[in-house]
Amino acid sequence: MRKARIAVLVSGGGTNLGAMIKAEREGKLTSGKIELVIANKADAYALVRASDAGIPTAVVLKKECPSQEAFEDRIMALLSENQIDLIVLAGFMAILSERFTSAYPERIINVHPSLIPSFCGKGFYGLRVHEAALSYGVKVTGATVHFVNEVPDGGRIIMQKAVAIREGDTPEILQKRVMRLAEWKILPAAVEKVSAELMAEK
Ligand code: GAR
Question: Are 192 and 109 contacting, i.e. CB atoms less than 8 angstroms apart?
Fold first, then answer.
C-alpha cells in the first residue's frame, strides 16, 4: 500500500520530529513517510535533525513575506509541490489562518503539551503551558494530539496521555517529563493511525 506523504512543520528543537524519525526507523511508523520538514525559523535545531535523517527541508520566514496570506501561500505551494497528504505541527509556533486550516480538513495534526481542554488555546504554548498547570496546582497533566481546525487547539482529539505532577516540579522539569512520557509516544502513534486511515480511504 502507498504511504502517506507527511510534512512536519517546526519552529524549535524538534524533539517531537526526532521521535517521529525514530519511529520510522524502528518500524513503528510504517503507513506514512516524512517527506519534508518546513521551519519558520532559520536556526531551528529541528532542521539539523531533518538533514541528519536525509529529509529535505525548507525555511519560510514570516518577515520575508508581505502578509500572513503570502506566508501561508508559500507553505501551501511547498505542500502541493511535494504532494503532501498529512501535515504534522510539531512545535510549530506560528498561527495558521482559517483559510489555511480549511484547505486541509482533518489533514493537519498538532501535538499540545496539556490535556485539552485544560491550558490550551490562545497564548498557551511551550513552557507557558507548564507554568500555567503548575500555578493552577493540578496534580495531573499530559499531552494531546488533535486535528487542527479554525479554533486554536479546538479540533477533534486523536490521542491523549496523562502525566503525574510531582512535588518540586519546575516548568522545565515538567516539560521534559511530558515530552518523554507522553508527546514522544502519542505523536508517532497518532501519525501512524491517521496515515493508515488516510491510505485505507484511497
Ligand atoms: C512541545 O512540547 C510541543 O508540545 C509544544 O512545543 C514543544 C516543541 O518541542 N507545542 C505547543 O505548545 C503548541 N501549542 P519540540 O520542538 O522539541 O518538539
Answer: no
Find the 17 Cα to ligand 1 centroid distance in Å. Answer: 10
Domain-wise residue ranges, the chain: 4-201
- Please report the atom of ligand 1 found closest to the CA of residue 125: 12
pLDDT, tens digit, 9 for 90 and up, residues 94-136: 999 999 999 999 999 999 999 999 999 999 999 999 999 999 9
Give the CATH architecture of domain 4-201. 3-Layer(aba) Sandwich (3.40)
Percent of the chain whose predicted confidence (pLDDT) is above 70: 100
Residues whose beta carbon lies within 6 Å of some atom of ligand 1:
10, 12-16, 46, 90-91, 111-113, 125-126, 129, 179, 183
Which residue CA neighbors atom 3 of ligand 1 most closely?
A: 91
pLDDT at 202 over 80: no
What cell was used for 121?
Answer: 488555546
Nearest to 39 by CA among 19, 55, 26, 23: 55
What is the secondary structure of 81-113 as a DSSP string?
HTT-SEEEESS--S---HHHHTTSTT-EEEEES
Task: Give the pLDDT mean for 13-39.
Answer: 98
- Catalytic site includes residue 112: yes
